[in-house]
């Protein structure tokens, strides 16, 4: 007896997880990054230099670390827009803790990480328990932490005391920027979580069909609280790394970072509607955004105009992605 | 078939189960037993009590009195968990799969096997492959569910229940959303599951399917189990009369009217095909006529209307309005030609809940209540009040938010919207769905009045027994084709139901 056969063409859709086969979007992104490297390598002076490449890695970490968590959030059909102020506030918290509250660096770092998980968890709890839309819950965090960071510091940098730990976090290990190493390690952790843990698979199930997930016995509230606690923690890590690099905490740092993060995730092929997305896609999205940002600077484009160009490129990248997805679905259904 | 089943041990016994909801006796003194390996069909009209029975069996509802026992063990007050532990698995009508995940993952949704803490994809795939092999299905466990046909998804849903090794498998209209060609695989699969010793309770309206796979059929009416018959012995007429009882036959047909069918039809459809649901539908509709289209769920009723209103492109066939063939029937074109469709899902596709009745009425044609680009509140109010009066919509005022109205009055407003736009061809999809008996009668009356005033109306309904009450002529669809055309004296509740169901 023959049931409906699955043709190779039908299998083109992605199942999720970084090692499950390549989708058109990811191949397209790799191609785009290669093209950018060729173009910028031949037009932008110093683009290919080792220093610039290492600098790009450091920049990528600022976006990438938070992007791993936000990928899961968006796959689950939620959104987190609190990243920028959360990173800035974390840098203030760690500096204040070490410099003014006499906690010492290790304790100040731990306090910051715990606080990050706590405010993230709070947003998740508001979402899970009271159905506050996650956009609004994290908008509240965005506004509150942004204000608190500036209030505590009078918008002035808080200088970190000298410390070997901070030197390592802000510097390099074997020549590679420490934030980049953290980013790569966390990438593998999150790629594993997304694909090989019950929690990760629950995230896909909740984002794809929440009622079905509930009927299958998945605890939606637990998943949602964990999601935002994770992004809070990752923001705090990014904030600590940023403070280490700048030697100070700064309440106005990382302004607008949340949009770079969301753009990287969406360019990487994660559906804002939820259910679909991969860590590898986000990694490529982070790479894409970082290379463009770096290239525009090296080419000497006016910094206001840079935002215009980036805006156009981000929308164009997502547009291509949407068109590809639609076409794949259309061939599947006929 | 019956021989090998008779030897099976009794899996489930329902003894004297009664369930009341406030004001409704949903289930009265139900007795039922099913043996291992038996496929038992469950038949009845909407509201006959099938859903309540299923909910009691699967532990969702607790009976007021009576007991349910599986292999001698009482279900008691244990709820869904206890029912699952006893081996009762239910596949509900609405699909509950995650389309972005693979088939194997959906089979193990929320209960993913682990190996050293990590989700074990190999175990999932081989477990899924084993279930598919046992049932002779060719489905790739690694394929995303979203890439599968509707039939394959239904099979995956059934296999998920089978993987948990049920003793009683309840299937609630598993084929209702499928095209005819896809049904076979599902039926064969159900047969195989039963032959492995599982008792199956199979809800369906399609008699042909029931004849092919079921050993016996239990018929419900008005919350009672009327009879359990051997499928081989009972003919269609017997089953239909068991389902209907005497009540429906008593309903009144409106007096016969003369529809002038000599001139050019207002709407003419030839060979309309919108695969997979609609394969070949042709008919003429004249001014002043109410044409009913009946058929079971999945027979293509809604799809025909959507194609005629220009929402979905037809694969082939022609649509003519007043003798002129429409080359590109888009929604805008059909609206301009005077075609208006009211959707089946009033809440989600019909009304704009928070707007007033007035704006809900005029939003089909703002130009008619504007001067230049400006919408004139005075014109809106006058147009709305005129329609409210003409359709006798019961509302506190024209500006009352439409959600505050009863379902029947909301439906009248949705119909009135097309009168405002000046439509002459009204396509009404399930206009009486979810409204009470009184409101139904009002809608019938309104539809008749509009026809007498010269409109041409297509009245689609899955409640087949209402079609003779309002229509001049009825087409029944089966598997995407016109199965019968009934008019005049032949047009009765029995004849419509038989034509839609019969093999």
TrEMBL record, chain A:
Superkingdom of this protein's organism: Bacteria
Location in the cell: Cell membrane
Membrane topology field: Multi-pass membrane protein
A Pfam family of this chain: BPD_transp_2
Record has Cell inner membrane as a keyword: yes
Transmembrane parts of this sequence: 27-48, 60-83, 103-125, 132-152, 172-194, 225-246, 252-273, 280-301, 307-324
Record has Transmembrane as a keyword: yes
CDD domains membership: TM_PBP1_transp_AraH_like
Name assigned to this protein: ABC transporter permease
Organism the protein comes from: Prauserella endophytica
TrEMBL record, chain B:
Keyword terms: ATP-binding, Nucleotide-binding, Repeat, Transport
Source organism, top-level taxon: Bacteria
Organism for this UniProt entry: Prauserella endophytica
Gene3D superfamilies according to UniProt: P-loop containing nucleotide triphosphate hydrolases
SMART domains cross-referenced by the UniProt entry: AAA (SM00382)
Sequence intervals crossing the membrane: none
Entry's Gene Ontology molecular function annotations: ATP binding
Pfam assignment, any one: ABC_tran
Domain (ABC transporter): residue spans on this chain: 12-247, 242-502
Protein name as it appears in the record: Sugar ABC transporter ATP-binding protein
This protein's record includes keyword Nucleotide-binding: yes
InterPro entries per the UniProt record, alphabetical: AAA+_ATPase (IPR003593), ABC_carbohydrate_import_ATPase (IPR050107), ABC_transporter-like_ATP-bd (IPR003439), ABC_transporter-like_CS (IPR017871), P-loop_NTPase (IPR027417)
Nucleotidyltransferase found in the keyword field: no
């Amino acid at each position: 007896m023959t049931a409906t056969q699955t043709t190779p063409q039908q299998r083109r859709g992605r199942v999720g997880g970084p090692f499950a086969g390549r989708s058109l979007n990811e191949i397209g992104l790799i191609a785009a990054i290669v093209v950018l490297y060729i173009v910028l390598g031949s037009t932008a002076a110093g683009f290919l230099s080792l220093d610039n490449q290492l600098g790009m890695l450091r920049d990528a970490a600022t976006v990438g670390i938070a992007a791993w968590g936000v990928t899961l959030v968006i796959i689950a059909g939620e959104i987190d827009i609190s990243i920028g102020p959360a990173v800035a506030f974390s840098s203030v918290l760690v500096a204040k803790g070490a410099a003014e509250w006499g906690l010492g660096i290790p304790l100040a770092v731990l306090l910051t990480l715990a606080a990050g998980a706590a405010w993230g968890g709070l947003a998740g709890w508001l979402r899970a328990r009271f159905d506050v839309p996650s956009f609004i819950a994290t908008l509240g965090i965005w506004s509150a932490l942004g204000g608190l960071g500036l209030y505590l510091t009078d918008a002035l940098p808080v200088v970190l005391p000298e410390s070997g730990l901070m030197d390592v976090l802000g510097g390099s290990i074997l020549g590679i920027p420490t934030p980049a190493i953290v980013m790569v390690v966390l990438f593998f952790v999150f790629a594993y979580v997304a694909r090989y843990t019950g929690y990760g698979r629950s995230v896909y199930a909740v984002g794809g069909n929440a009622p079905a997930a509930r009927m299958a016995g998945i605890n939606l509230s637990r998943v949602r609280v964990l999601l935002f606690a994770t992004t809070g923690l990752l923001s705090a890590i990014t904030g600590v790394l940023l403070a280490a690099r700048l030697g100070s905490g700064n309440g106005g740092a990382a302004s607008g970072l949340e949009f770079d993060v969301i753009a990287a995730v969406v360019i990487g092929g994660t559906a804002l509607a939820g259910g679909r997305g991969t860590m590898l896609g986000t990694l490529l999205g982070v790479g894409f955004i970082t290379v463009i940002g770096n290239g525009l600077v090296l080419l000497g484009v006016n910094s206001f105009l840079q935002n215009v160009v980036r805006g156009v490129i981000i929308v164009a990248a997502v547009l291509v992605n949407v068109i590809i997805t639609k076409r794949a679905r259309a061939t599947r259904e006929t | 078939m019956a021989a090998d089943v008779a030897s099976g041990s009794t899996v489930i016994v329902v003894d004297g189960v009664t369930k009341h909801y406030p004001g409704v006796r949903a289930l009265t003194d139900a007795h039922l037993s099913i043996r291992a390996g038996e496929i038992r069909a469950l038949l009845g009209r909407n509201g006959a009590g099938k859903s309540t029975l299923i909910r009691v069996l699967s532990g969702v509802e607790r009976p007021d009195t009576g007991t349910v026992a599986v292999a001698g063990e009482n279900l008691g007050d244990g709820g869904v968990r206890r029912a699952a532990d006893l081996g009762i698995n239910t596949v509900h009508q609405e699909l509950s799969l995650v389309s972005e995940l693979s088939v194997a993952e959906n089979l193990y949704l929320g209960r993913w096997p682990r190996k050293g803490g990590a989700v074990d994809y190999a175990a999932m795939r081989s477990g899924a492959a084993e279930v598919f092999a046992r049932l002779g299905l060719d489905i790739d466990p690694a394929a995303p569910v979203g890439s599968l046909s509707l039939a394959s998804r239904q099979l995956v849903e059934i296999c998920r229940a089978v993987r948990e090794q049920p003793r009683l498998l309840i299937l609630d209209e598993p084929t209702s959303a499928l095209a005819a060609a896809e049904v076979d695989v599902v039926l064969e699969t159900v047969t195989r599951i039963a032959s492995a010793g599982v008792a199956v309770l199979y809800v369906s309206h399609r008699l042909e399917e029931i004849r092919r796979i079921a050993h016996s059929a239990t018929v419900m009416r008005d919350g009672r189990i009327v009879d359990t018959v051997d499928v081989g012995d009972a003919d269609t007429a017997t089953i239909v009369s068991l389902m209907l009882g005497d009540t429906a036959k008593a309903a009144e047909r409106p007096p016969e009217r003369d529809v002038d069918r000599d001139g050019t039809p207002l709407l003419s459809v030839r060979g309309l095909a919108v695969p997979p649901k609609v394969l070949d539908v042709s008919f003429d509709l004249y001014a002043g006529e109410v044409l009913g289209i009946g058929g079971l769920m999945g027979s293509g009723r809604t799809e025909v209307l959507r194609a005629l209103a220009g929402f979905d492109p037809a694969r082939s066939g022609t649509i003519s309005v007043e003798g002129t063939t429409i080359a590109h029937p888009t929604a805008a074109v059909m609206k301009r030609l005077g075609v208006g469709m009211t959707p089946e899902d009033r809440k989600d596709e019909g009304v704009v809940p928070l707007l007033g009745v007035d704006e809900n009425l005029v939003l089909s044609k703002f130009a008619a209540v504007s001067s230049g680009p400006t919408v004139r509140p005075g014109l809106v109010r006058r147009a709305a009040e005129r329609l409210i009066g003409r359709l006798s919509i019961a509302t506190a005022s024209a500006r009352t938010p439409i959600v505050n109205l009863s379902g029947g009055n909301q439906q009248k407003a949705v119909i009135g919207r097309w009168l405002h736009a000046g439509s002459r061809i009204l396509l009404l999809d399930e206009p009486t769905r979810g409204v009470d008996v009184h409101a139904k009668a009002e809608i019938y009356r309104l539809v008749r009045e509009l026809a007498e005033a010269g409109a041409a109306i297509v009245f689609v309904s899955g409640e087949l027994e209402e079609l003779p009450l309002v229509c001049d002529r009825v087409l029944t669809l089966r598997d995407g084709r016109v199965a019968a055309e009934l008019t005049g004296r032949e047009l009765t509740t029995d004849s419509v139901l038989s034509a839609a169901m019969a093999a």
